[in-house]
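Possible regression after last week's pipeline update?

I re-ran a chain I had predicted before the update to compare outputs. Posting the input and the new output here so someone can diff against the archived version. Not blocking, just want to make sure nothing changed silently.
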Amino acid sequence: MEFSWSRLAAAVVLLLLPVPALACTLCQSAQAASIRDRLMAPDLWWNACAIILPLSLLLAVVALVLREPETPGAAE
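New output (post-update):
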């Protein structure tokens, strides 16, 4: 069997077609409701801040390092 670009193109097109997910619960199952309740719990903002604060500090450090002027002769 020879390599065929047309078969490859057809396979790519078939793989990219929108196919409904067979495992999707459409947010109507008990598991989906449980996950939604845990995500929107009363401590949502506390958890969001616990993630955002260290990430913003890391990005600030990266920005400071990138703004540091190059010293002449340091790359030699």
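Follow-up from reviewer: compared with the archived run. DSSP finds three helices and no strands in the chain. Marking as no regression found.
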